[in-house]
């Protein structure tokens, strides 16, 4: 599904250059559950932004389904982000004054899907993420952290993406709640065949994946 070939990323601030990624190469196949693990500042979030087509590498090539992402137009990149990739972030990124159901349906608003289909798709995604139906019309501030993360997972699923990218999805959760969220990812992988990439600094989270890519100081140290 995705392949990185000698990816490098350099940030420039004035006369200072910082190499966030150095010569990163790996493949992730359809249906894999992979963890990218490393300490803070290792470059793993920068890598996730590249994998999610939110940023571009300074050097090297990134391929999705065999196509070089650098060849895509802005419209093609936007379509990939909205249709092929689902994002789950540590901070949830939910709209505070909008119900759970409408938060989940939001990506479909941007995709110009009609209201009836948006609502139905949101309900399916919430059910898939094991979110209780009696909370569908609640606001985010009426939910626990674990419930908010399940809403974020459902929102990532609503477009039925083939790839889910999760950046520190348990970082704001206690151990028990984090385990429940990881179990939701596991179920999505095992029962629905989603390709899942989890970015984490926690060994206990990475161990839930089929394979771990270790990154440190912008370089892969084990794969």
Relevant terms:
single chain; 223 residues; alpha/beta; six-stranded mixed beta sheet; four-stranded antiparallel beta sheet; 7 helices; 29% strand; globular
Structural description of this entry:
The chain has 223 residues and is α/β, with parallel strands linked by helices. It is built from 7 helices and 10 strands. It has helices spanning 44-51, 74-83, 100-110, 115-128, 145-157, 175-192, 203-206; strands at residues 2-13, 16-28, 33-37, 59-64, 67-68, 85-89, 163-167, 195-200, 211-216, 219-222. The strands form 2 sheets. Strands 6-7-8-3-9-10 form a 6-stranded mixed sheet, sandwiched between helices. Strands 2-1-4-5 form a 4-stranded antiparallel sheet, with helices on one face. Helix 4 packs across helix 5 (145-157). The longest helix is centred in the C-terminal third of the chain and has 18 residues, at 175-192. The protein is globular. It starts with a strand and ends with a strand. The mean pLDDT is 91.
Write the layout of secondary structure elements.
Elements: E1 2-13, E2 16-28, E3 33-37, H1 44-51, E4 59-64, E5 67-68, H2 74-83, E6 85-89, H3 100-110, H4 115-128, H5 145-157, E7 163-167, H6 175-192, E8 195-200, H7 203-206, E9 211-216, E10 219-222
Parallel strand pairs: 3-8, 3-9, 6-7, 7-8
Antiparallel strand pairs: 1-2, 1-4, 4-5, 9-10
């Amino acid at each position: 599904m995705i392949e990185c070939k000698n990816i490098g990323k350099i940030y420039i601030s004035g006369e200072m250059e910082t190499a966030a990624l150095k010569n990163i190469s790996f493949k992730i196949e359809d249906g894999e559950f992979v963890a990218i693990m490393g300490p803070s500042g290792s470059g793993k979030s920068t890598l996730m932004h590249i994998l999610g087509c939110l940023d571009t590498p300074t050097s090297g090539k990134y391929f999705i389904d065999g196509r070089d992402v650098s060849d895509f137009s802005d419209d093609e990149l936007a379509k990939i982000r909205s249709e092929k990739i689902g994002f789950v972030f540590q901070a949830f990124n939910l709209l505070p004054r909008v119900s759970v159901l409408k938060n989940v349906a939001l990506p479909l608003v941007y995709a110009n899907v009609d209201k009836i289909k948006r609502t139905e798709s949101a309900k399916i995604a919430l059910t898939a993420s094991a979110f209780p139906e009696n909370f569908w019309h609640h606001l985010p501030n009426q939910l626990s952290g674990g419930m908010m993360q399940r809403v974020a997972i459902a929102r990532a699923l609503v477009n039925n993406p083939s790839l889910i990218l999760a950046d520190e999805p348990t970082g704001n959760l206690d151990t028990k709640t984090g385990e429940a969220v990881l179990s939701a990812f596991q179920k999505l992988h095992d029962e629905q065949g989603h390709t899942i990439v989890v970015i984490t600094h926690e060994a206990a989270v990475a161990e839930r994946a089929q394979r771990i890519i270790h990154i440190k100081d912008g370089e892969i140290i084990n794969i």
